[in-house]
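Field: COMPLEX_INPUT
Field: COMPONENT_COUNT = four
Field: RESIDUE_TOTAL = 484
Field: MODE = joint
Values follow.
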Amino acid sequence: MSKRPNTSPGKQLSSSPADELSHIPLLKILSSTDRRRVLQDLTERHYTKRDVIFREGDPTEYFHIVKEGTVKCVKSSPEGKECTLKMLMPGDLFCCDAAAFEGAFHPGTAQPMGDVSILRMNKKSYFDMLRRNPDAAIEVIKHLGTRLNEAQEKAKILALDRTDQRLASLLVDLATKNGVKDPQGIALPMRLTRQDMANMVGTTTETAIRIMSRFKRDRLVSGTATRLIIRDLARLKALASA
Amino acid sequence: MSKRPNTSPGKQLSSSPADELSHIPLLKILSSTDRRRVLQDLTERHYTKRDVIFREGDPTEYFHIVKEGTVKCVKSSPEGKECTLKMLMPGDLFCCDAAAFEGAFHPGTAQPMGDVSILRMNKKSYFDMLRRNPDAAIEVIKHLGTRLNEAQEKAKILALDRTDQRLASLLVDLATKNGVKDPQGIALPMRLTRQDMANMVGTTTETAIRIMSRFKRDRLVSGTATRLIIRDLARLKALASA
DNA sequence: TTCAAAACATGATGCGCGTCATGTTTTTTT
DNA sequence: AAAAAAACATGACGCGCATCATGTTTTGAA
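Field: COMPLEX_OUTPUT
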């Protein structure tokens, strides 16, 4: 059996134990009969750091769920500058909007931050599921509402705050939503370079490095890309909205 | 009957002719039996320029539809700076996300740009409607998806582009989505000051004025707040993504 | 129509941050 | 373990845009 480059072939989730998917809110609320049906339509795929899950401009074909790992959602400008819109974590849905309905195209690129596994479902099965199951549709509405609020909050921060404040906001956000406890403070569960941070707050790598150096001197953070630790969340919060 | 200050009391839409609401996508897709029911739950309200429809931080109580006029969606920072996230036009939904479900608060302020009329519905009726009518839920998902894409596109522009490019993007966007034909070019259908524009692209009033003056000299636009006209959409587009 | 309040305009000044440049340290690959 | 490639670091310099200041013009209310 020949292996395709960079992405493992899709795999049926024939007999997944219930608990494997129990941490995904959308699937948890399905009736047990419907869940079996949905499991048949879902396919699991694995990606690594150098893959792209889909590219900006590609036609939309699937609805996706992050099962494991971190996925970044990126847009880029004609001149090659990049902007990272969102880090998707396990349980997050993407391409769940019906803009993906008819002949639509991906507005951004989805790229793994490391090894990830993704569940996906073709559009038809997805919308059939939503039509059969109004509570699932409401769950999707809830998720999209949250995402919209986040995106608007991000726009506000980009529009009004200085670079150091935006960076502080980012760290607070990541620590709060995804941080794991650590003897030194709060550790971020994904590899995150200064370049990644720069792309998330709309600045250059150099400026992100300078500001992070300052944060380090001031004992607000410690560590580097492979293991970044937030040491003083309170002071970062204060700086973020100063 | 005592009149409440600034807002007209709610009015039942008892016997609205079908055509009055036919331009609202969400209502158009309801079955005719359900539409009658929904009409009973909808209330019409009128607001003027100095009212607020709801304020950032208020508890969410209603689902809203813009029937007539323009509503702006604003966030503000502790220091009093403001950021306008979105102009809502007739047919647009707001607070349609289920974050408004349980004890949630408005993430921004909704403010009329002039005289507007709004249809609204309490949360329970709204979610009942969605549960009865999966196609309506999918319509809401579609709307939220569009809004999310817009918000992310806006974040990208704020993160990557210069101020004159952001302003050009804004004008292109408004002209394309809401512009009406005019002998001179494309007229924008709402009163829009340089301050409004500044708040939409994350800059100061002075800078917005300076750039708009330049655009005027270069024959890209003409007119002022009360009647702004886009005269060369193509060149504005070119500037926006240069 | 008149007057006050917004909106528009334009200059001077300074700082934040982008850009380019050069070097060190850490991580990843072979 | 060694080599290659990222990531981190720090300085010099200049432009874009915020800030403050001082008019003029337009709009809308009395």
